[in-house]
Amino acid sequence: MADGREIRLFSYGTLRQRNVQLATFGREFGGRDDALVGFARTMVEITDPEVIATSGETHHPIVTRSGNPADEVAGTVFSITAAELAAADSYEVTDYRRIAVRLRSGTEAFVYVRAADAS
Questions:
Q1: How far apart are CA 107 and CA 24, in angstroms?
Q2: DSSP class of residue 5?
Q3: Quick check: helix, strand or coil at residue 21?
């Protein structure tokens, strides 16, 4: 990274898809498995035609805080650039907001959660 800081992004959904990565970032990410603790995964309907065209899906996973430390959402943590983080922000629809979290491994990363749950 230009400023020396590594940016980590945790994905449990479509940002793990090769086709979404190529369309959104111009490259395929390598990553490692991890988990988001204290969150539960559900689905949300996507109405943005561009996002549907990119992902090929009308419903995407979304997470909300469960309040239960036994709940975990499996996913992948990626190392990305600041420009790629901005591209991910542009890809995500208004149902999602980006927050910083600590994953099960202790890694600090950004993740997209249900917007109403982001405060």
A1: 24
A2: P
A3: helix
Compute the CA torsion angle 61, 98, 75, 46 (nearest 10 deg). Answer: 20
Q: Give the integer Cα–Cα distance in Å for 7 and 58.
A: 29
Structure tokens at 79: 């190392």
Dump strand ranges (E) for the chain.
Answer: 7-11, 31-37, 39-45, 59-65, 72-80, 96-102, 108-114
Residues in the chain: 119
Band of residue 2 on the pLDDT scale cut at 50, 70, 90: very low
* Distance separating alpha carbons of residues 59 and 76, to the nearest angstrom: 19
pTM above the 0.85 mark?
Answer: yes
Q: Which residues pair with 10 in a beta bridge?
A: 77
pLDDT digits (tens, 9 = 90+) for 85-104: 999 999 999 999 999 999 99
